[in-house]
Amino acid sequence: MRRVVVATTNRGKLEEIRSALTFEGWEFVTAAELGAEPLEVEETGATFIANARLKAHAYHEAFGLAALADDSGLEVDVLGGAPGVLSARYADDCLGGGDSANNARLLVELEDVPEADRTARFRSVIVFADEDGTETVAEGTCEGKVGFAPRGSGGFGYDPLFLPDATPGRTMAELSLEEKNAISHRGAALRAFRETLEG
User: Fold this and answer.
1) Which of 59, 75, 102, 197 could form a disulfide with 67 if both were Cys (CB 3.0 to 4.6 A apart)?
2) Can you give the residue range of the structural domain that contains 120?
3) pTM value?
């Protein structure tokens, strides 16, 4: 069995990764499942790939296993690409942080923006550090718009506000895991990663 430690404490991300990467003989595990505390990796990179790289290599070095990390976020065009790499920490300085606070801040920022100008995309970058430190990178995006109010109980992060172009009228949080994986940024990145490994 090949064990790959996943550099996340986000159960939603882990579920999506395990669902998409069903390689025979591979097991995707967390630090907690290895009996350890998750690493606190400071995400100081200015890009998604830089932060994913920091996390993947930190986990690889700490556990001596192959490691997989994802860094992802929402890029809103009218906000110049914000929240971008700060997506998970968008409201830390003003509303206390967390998904609900991040969504609330985004709605405030877009309060006077009409539907036509609320275009956005989710972006995901996957970095896989093999046992010997060799790196594989894959990326995916999902185009859509930011809605006016949260809807749906699935997913996490900005999913209740994001309306993918591929599923008109439904937010990402209103999709099943299978539907989400089929069209999401992380699903696209994981497919690209799988195709690279399967060559």
Assistant:
1) 59
2) 2-198
3) 0.91
Cα separation, 189 vs 140, whole angstroms: 4
CATH no. for residue 80? 3.90.950.10
User: Rounded distance, CA 178 to CA 183, Å?
Assistant: 9
Q: How many CB atoms are closer than 10 A to CB 168?
A: 8
Angle between helix 185-198 and helix 11-20 axes, rounded to 10 deg: 40
Contact indicator for 162, 140 with CB cutoff of 8 Å: no
Rounded-to-integer distance, Cα 122 and Cα 140, Å:
8
Q: Are 69 and 55 in contact (CB under 8 A)?
A: yes
Helices (H), the chain: 11-20, 48-63, 99-109, 177-183, 185-198
Active-site residue identified among 70, 71, 99, 159: 71
pLDDT (tens digit, 9 = 90+) per residue, 110-153?
A: 999 999 999 999 999 999 999 998 999 999 999 999 999 999 99
The question of whether 77 is a catalytic residue gets the answer no
Residue 164 parent element (H or E): strand 162-164
CB 136 within 8 A of CB 60: no
Q: How many domains does the chain have?
A: 1
